[in-house]
Specification:
The complex is a heterodimer of chains A (193) and B (193). Chain A is built from six helices and eight strands, in the order H-H-E-E-H-E-E-E-H-E-E-E-H-H. In chain A, the strands form two sheets. In chain A, strands 1-8-3-4 form a four-stranded antiparallel beta sheet. In chain A, helix 1 crosses helix 2, helix 1 crosses helix 5 and helix 2 packs across helix 5. The radius of gyration of chain A is 21 Å and the shape is elongated. The two termini of chain A are 15 Å apart. Chain B has 193 residues and is α+β, with helices and mostly antiparallel strands. A seven-stranded mixed beta sheet of chain B has the order 1-7-3-4-5-6-2. In chain B, helix 2 packs across helix 4. Chain B is elongated, with a radius of gyration of 22 Å. Chain B starts with a helix and ends with a helix. Classes of the chains: A alpha+beta (193), B alpha+beta (193). At the A-B interface, helix 2, helix 5 and helix 6 of A face helix 1, strand 1, strand 3, strand 7 and helix 4 of B.
């Protein structure tokens, strides 16, 4: 069931004993919810997105931020119907010392280099398209009536993390410490259905 | 702009108790630390000149992750290792197979052997320097680099790291317990990001 952000804000403010939003304005809490939802989805990938990436002939390296703007973290890459093997820069260099120029009619592997670069190996002699599956950047929540994008089973972590940050803000540190312990437990126990 | 958002978050979460100048300073420190962890990566193309083996590493480069010369991946070696292959490695000429940064002045590297051909023009007819326009005999460097801004979804995480630094150290607004919990929250997130 979709949960509007406003409902979550009301809940959170009650839990931090500020139901009127005197110490923490609702707009601040909405801003925090946006940030927390993005981080939580980056960590747990509950909401995914498929994007097409146009690949150019003889090109191996792509900027993730420029070419895949909705991607937080790449989960898999497909070329035609083939799921590419997930590798690393070191592994590719290890089995092919001329990897910068090796060419084939089909990609066989991909690697992410840091957060910014996607390597597709080996290069193609023609232009093509790959499908990239990623954790989705849920972006900014525009207003309280907007539904949270993550599924309901992820909302507990978002709620706890936001409450923790608000408690820190007002330096309610003993409660914040307890909330942090609760958050760690929730994150350890989290299983994405 | 990510830095603006991070600073705003630091202001909001610390109830404006932070100091603008130190927030700026710690922001730069946090970004450098994340670059050291290979978070911010890019590819740089460098022109090579016949008869020149010594080249300057770009200013914003923090770490060189991989380097390739034309079609070949270069291995990073120490001078001692190079001496096992070439009697006088600094005088060797030919297609580079390795590079070294040891014993060079800061921010320089040496190709070995010394290139006997200059790289082709850096004119990118198709606008694809890493694709079909890749200039032959150029050096491609995959690096981590100093950045002003990170991806927007990481703003809250970076803000927590900045708060940890700013409120840990001696100042008129030092609050070690507050800083510690903020740092612990960032620590809980980081392995999953």
């Amino acid at each position: 069931m979709a949960t509007p952000a406003g409902l979550l804000i009301t809940d959170i403010l009650q839990h931090v004993r500020d139901p009127q939003g005197s110490a923490h304005s609702r707009s601040l809490v909405l801003t925090l919810l946006s940030h927390v939802q993005r981080l939580v989805n980056g960590m747990f990938s509950s909401v995914i997105v498929e994007e097409s990436l146009s690949v150019e002939q003889r090109k191996l390296l792509y900027s993730i931020e420029a070419e895949l703007p909705n991607s937080l973290k790449i989960k898999s890459v497909r070329h035609r119907s083939l799921e590419l093997f997930e590798s690393s820069l070191n592994e590719v260099g290890g089995f092919d010392s001329v990897w910068p120029r090796t060419m084939s009619a089909q990609f066989s592997a991909y690697a992410t280099i840091g957060r910014d670069l996607l390597l597709l190996y080996p290069m193609l002699p023609f232009d093509s398209t790959v499908t990239v599956v990623s954790a989705k950047d849920t972006g900014t929540i525009p207003q309280e009536s907007t539904n949270m994008e993550v599924p309901d089973h992820s909302l507990n972590i978002i709620r706890t993390m936001t409450e923790l940050i608000l408690l820190l803000r007002l330096r309610e540190l003993p409660r914040a410490q307890e909330k942090l312990a609760a958050l760690q437990k929730q994150m350890q126990d989290f299983v994405d259905v | 702009m990510s830095k603006t958002t991070v600073v705003q978050l630091v202001d909001d979460l610390s109830l404006d108790q932070n100091d603008t100048i130190t927030t700026d300073k710690y922001y730069a420190e946090v970004m450098d630390e994340l670059a050291q962890k290979d978070w911010f990566t890019s590819v740089e193309l460098l022109e090579t000149t016949k008869g020149t083996s010594l080249y300057t590493i770009p200013n914003d480069t923090i770490k060189m992750l991989a380097m390739f010369y034309d079609t070949t991946s270069l291995s990073r070696e120490t001078p001692k290792k190079l001496m096992t292959v070439f009697n006088d490695w600094r005088a060797a000429k030919g297609q580079p197979i390795a590079y070294t940064v040891v014993e060079e002045t800061t921010k320089q590297f040496t190709l070995c052997p010394e290139p006997v051909v200059s790289s082709k023009d850096f004119s990118f007819l198709f606008g694809t320097p890493l694709g079909r326009d890749f200039p032959a005999y150029a050096v491609g460097m995959i690096q981590t680099e100093r950045r002003q801004d990170a991806q927007a979804w990481l703003d809250l995480f970076i803000a927590l790291r900045v708060i940890f630094k700013e409120f840990s150290y001696e100042s008129d607004h030092q609050d070690v317990q507050f800083a510690t919990i903020c740092g612990q929250l960032a620590d809980v997130m980081e392995p999953l990001l």
